[in-house]
Amino acid sequence: MDPIVLAAGSALVGAMATDDWERARSAAVGWWLRASPEQAETIGADLAEARYQLVAARQAGDTNAERVLVADWQIRLQLLLQAAPALMDGLLGLLHEGLTPVLPAHEQLATRSLVMSATVAGRGRVYQAGRDLHLHYQDSVRRSRRVLRNEGAVPGECPYPGLAAFGTDQAQWFFGRDELTAELLMRLDERLANGGALIVVAPSGAGKSSLLRAGLLPAIAAGALPAAGSAP
């Protein structure tokens, strides 16, 4: 489910328990009527019933009932956006301007931490993360660098080792496994953070040894992992 939908559903239900609910309710109803005019007769009553259920759940200490309410409104928002993706900008505005400001400070922080947005044009890329971000490139930049490195190859040297596995000294000839190498690096990066072993399993002859010796090890030696022993 879209993170903005998750945040908006949580904020909508959270706002129901605040003193400024009427202000938040007006903003929510206004957006909903623009998004789905056919629900004009029911959305106000649905919100009022949901608020009644939320207040009762909080008074009874029933956190499960509150989670069910949140999930219900998140699903309703998701269905609206699936039918009309162009509504996303309006929902984001409702979240930031109509719902989040009425929430208690700790709920505002929790809601905002769920949402990251970015705009990109043309062939640009966006990389977002809530904490450290390590990128292992798999695109033409790596392949271009390999082509340049091959210019120093010894004339007449055979790039194919036959049935033997590629070794670290044959990394310049090892092609076609960039995506697998990058995936291994990402999984190793996760193990560095969280612990645990990483095992490569495949049928005999699939190229496991070549992948590790001529793909993974040279990448680590070139500094692809933020760890001791990986070159800067």
* Structural class estimated from helices and strands: mainly alpha
- Main sheet properties: none
What is the string of SSEs from the N terminus onward?
HHHHHHHHH
Number of domains: 2
Please compute the radius of gyration using only Cα atoms: 27 Å
Write down how many β-strands occur, each being a DSSP E stretch of 2 or more residues. Answer: 0
Percent of residues in β-strands: under 5%
The average pLDDT value, as a whole number, equals 77
Which term fits the overall shape? Answer: elongated
- Specify the helix fraction band: 55-70%
Number of helices: 9
Kindly, what is the distance between the CA atoms of the first and last residues, rounded to a whole number of angstroms? 38 Å
Low-pLDDT ranges: 139-149
Structure at a glance:
This protein has 232 residues and is an all-alpha fold.
